[in-house]
Write a structure and sequence with these properties.
disordered C terminus
Length: 432
């Protein structure tokens, strides 16, 4: 039997021939402009996910609600985002990515203003719905633009920058919101967040011609598609779609554990100072961004994709087990977070590349919409599990669950490669 590296190589050769063509002759300047604009827009997606969480201490007092009720706002956000993400892929394939992108950014900006103007808990819920709608459009839009606009040799770097900007968006939200809240109020902070989102929307609209393809008008679809291409659900019969969905569901469960309760679990296990524990998440995200940049270079050879994922998540899982079971000095905990973030970050571009290989032609938006909805489902459900473990005094089990999920990701990635190698083109599925 061929080893997995061989399978990965064969998958790349067979699948990329059926994918919508990238632009091999594109200049570095054109590719850099596309990657930069998509990355800036993507950072707003991650920025929107942390508009409320850093403000929970102030919102709890302002609205006299429990932490569970505040957590429900996040669940509303991710449930709405999940539904929209699955549907947005069809909209992208039908109307083109730019109208969807503009709508998503506008919804996030308006939602942030609703947060700022809220006078009741239910107004915060309305804001969560609007921001969730906006967040749901980004993955179908982003990957359609990158796959169609960026030349093939630079695509791994495009994926790495895409991941880096997402991590920086996560880091930017508390860095902006908390100081503004301390200096002024949480309402001023959210108005400032809305202003940032509208500035990004203006930037993308201004440079929209750098995000078109196939000679399309900037505000129109790239080309007219057949009815089968626009609305067919035949791609849902392709196993690779659901294998990819499962991969991202588990990935979200792992990252959600790190984002939500892992720093507090580490504090309880190893006696880390509260301020240091709070800083560990930022350390993890910055290290993850550096890892994604490195990962873009590692997968310039497509045969390495699965090996990079296997190594990154295996090493990260070992670190999580060490955090759970070993008596670590408190001073070493931030270093463990940094190393784990870097290792998981290196797997990011490989992760996106194997999904691209498993994507049928003419269904980019739909496939990415369904596949990446697994992220929202995982992020909506996983905190309930981790929170229950913490409530029952099991911080070590939080880290062991993170380790187990990272282990599952290794096998899920292999399944994505195999499923992509076996998948039939969309046209064949449609005919069936």
């Amino acid at each position: 039997m061929p080893n997995m590296a061989t399978v990965c190589t064969l998958s790349f050769m067979s699948l990329t021939s059926a994918l919508p063509p990238t632009r091999p002759s594109a200049s570095l300047r054109d590719d850099a402009a596309t990657i930069g604009l998509v990355g800036i827009a993507h950072s707003v997606s991650h920025f929107s996910q942390l508009l409320l969480a850093p403000l929970f201490p102030w919102l709890k007092d302002a609205f006299q609600v429990s932490y569970a009720e505040l957590g429900l706002l996040m669940t509303i956000f991710f449930v709405v985002s999940c539904v929209v993400q699955a549907l947005a892929g069809f909209w992208v394939d039908r109307k083109g990515p730019l109208p969807v992108l503009f709508t998503g950014l506008a919804c996030i900006g308006v939602g942030a203003l609703v947060y700022a103007a809220s006078t009741s808990y239910w107004m915060l819920g309305v804001g969560s719905v609007l921001v969730g709608i906006g967040n749901g459009v980004f993955h179908p839009v982003d990957y359609t633009l990158l796959n169609k606009r960026v030349s093939a040799p630079r695509l791994p770097h495009a994926y790495s920058v895409h991941g880096v900007t997402g991590s920086l968006g996560w880091a930017a939200a508390p860095a902006l919101l908390v100081p503004l809240t301390v200096l002024f109020s949480w309402r001023v902070a959210l108005v400032g967040a809305a202003a940032v989102v509208f500035l990004v929307l203006a930037l993308v609209v201004w440079h929209r011609r750098r995000l078109t393809f196939d000679g399309a008008s900037p505000l129109q679809p790239a080309k007219r598609r057949t009815a089968a291409e626009e609305g067919s659900l035949a791609f849902l019969r392709i196993p690779a779609v659901w294998v990819c969905f499962a991969f991202f569901l588990f990935y979200a469960c792992a990252i959600s554990g790190v984002q939500s309760f892992a720093p507090e679990a580490a504090r309880l296990l190893h006696g880390v100072d509260k301020a240091v524990a709070a800083a560990c998440l930022s350390i993890y995200m910055v290290a993850s961004a550096l890892g994604m940049l490195t990962g873009g270079f590692l997968v310039r050879d497509p045969a390495r994709c699965e090996r990079v994922i296997r190594f990154g998540f295996s090493a990260a899982a070992l670190l999580a087990v060490t955090m759970a079971l070993a008596p670590l000095p408190a001073a070493s905990v931030p270093a463990v977070f940094a190393l784990m973030g870097f290792l998981t970050g290196t797997a990011g571009p490989s992760r996106d590349l194997i999904v691209k290989r498993a994507t049928p032609a003419n269904a980019t938006g739909r496939v990415y919409g369904v596949v990446y909805s697994g992220l929202d489902i995982g992020q909506a459900l996983a905190p309930l599990l981790y929170g229950t473990l913490m409530d029952h005094g099991r911080p070590a089990v939080v880290w062991l669950v993170v380790a187990c999920v990272q282990g599952v990701l290794i096998f899920s990635a292999a399944g994505v490669v195999r499923a992509g190698h076996r998948r039939a083109p969309l046209e064949t599925a449609t005919a069936g």
